[in-house]
TrEMBL record:
SUPFAM superfamilies linked to this entry: NAD(P)-binding Rossmann-fold domains
Source superkingdom: Bacteria
MF GO annotations: oxidoreductase activity, acting on NAD(P)H, oxygen as acceptor
Protein's name in the database: Short-chain dehydrogenase
Keywords of this entry: Oxidoreductase
Keyword field contains Oxidoreductase: yes
PANTHER family in the cross-refs: BENZIL REDUCTASE (PTHR43008), CHAIN DEHYDROGENASE, PUTATIVE (AFU_ORTHOLOGUE AFUA_4G08710)-RELATED (PTHR43008:SF4)
Gene3D superfamilies in alphabetical order: NAD(P)-binding Rossmann-like Domain (3.40.50.720)
Family note: Belongs to the short-chain dehydrogenases/reductases (SDR) family.
Pfam hit, one: adh_short_C2
Length: 263
């Protein structure tokens, strides 16, 4: 059955690959990006998000079947929490009424295997509490200590959105409304952003040390896109609140065989 799916960050990388897969299978895709797309806007700006949501409503006739919330940045600055968490949550919430009109509404969010390393729990807690001003101030504090410490802006914003997904998934607003919401956590991915890193032997070794990928090495954007496409399909009728690590085995390497702890 033909579906209408919104894909953010659709001008390049994982977003573009996802949009292409969805279109190839017959879905209508509304592409959202900063400058190039069916709808354009800065998803780090609250006012722009309101306008983006309205444009999506106009284009879709007030109903969408899926959202791939892929837009994000890896900057070691407060830009990461602003877009990866604050803007992502605001857009999902703004589009929830449109999703509720669908017979099989689904959301898939791009998170990251970086949630398993280098996090700042204070920043995570501030984001989850909804204190955007304090969260951005904390992000600025981390960034002021250099890129190594500032990296926590990225990993922590992705951890926060992953926890938010699990928090809202079983609620009346989501599960109760038939809206499934999951996350996809890529590991090493060959995109324009990582092209320079993977171009040299030194860069490849650095990447492998930071995030080992024993199963088939770094992914292509299409590998991540295929998982997004399934998660926003009608076929995904029971999975919600899950973070699917598409990381070549990094999760298993870093967390081992028992991630459940004790009750």
């Amino acid at each position: 059955m033909k579906r209408t799916i919104v894909v953010t960050g659709a001008a390049s990388g994982i977003g573009r690959a996802t949009a292409e897969i969805l279109e190839q299978q017959g879905d209508t895709v509304i592409r959202v990006d900063l400058e190039k797309g069916d709808v354009t806007g800065d998803l780090g700006d609250r006012d722009a998000i309101v306008q983006v949501a309205q444009k999506i409503a106009d284009l879709s006739g007030g109903r969408i079947d899926g959202l791939v919330a892929n837009a994000g940045v890896s900057a070691p600055t407060p830009l990461s929490p602003k877009i990866n968490y604050i803007g992502t949550v605001l857009l999902i919430e703004a589009l929830r009424p449109l999703l509720a009109e669908s017979d099989a509404p689904r959301i898939s969010v791009t998170t990251s295997a970086a949630t398993l390393q280098g996090n700042d729990e204070k920043l995570v807690d501030l984001l989850l509490s909804g204190d955007a001003e304090a969260a951005l101030a904390r992000g600025a504090e981390l960034a002021s200590q250099g890129p190594a410490v500032g990296y926590a802006n990225y990993s922590s914003s992705k951890r926060a959105i992953s926890r938010w997904i699990r928090r809202v998934a079983p609620t009346d607003d989501y599960a109760g409304a038939g809206i499934g919401i999951n996350g996809v956590g890529p590991g090493q991915v060959r995109t324009a952003m990582t092209k320079e890193l993977f171009a040299s032997e030194e860069g490849r070794k650095q990447a492998a040390t930071a995030m080992p990928t024993p199963f088939n090495g770094p992914a292509d954007a299409e590998d991540i896109a295929a998982v997004h496409a399934f998660l926003v399909s009608e076929a995904n009728s029971r999975m919600t609140g899950q973070i699917i690590f598409v990381d070549g085995g990094f999760d298993a390497v870093s967390r081992g065989d028992d991630i459940w702890g004790t009750a």
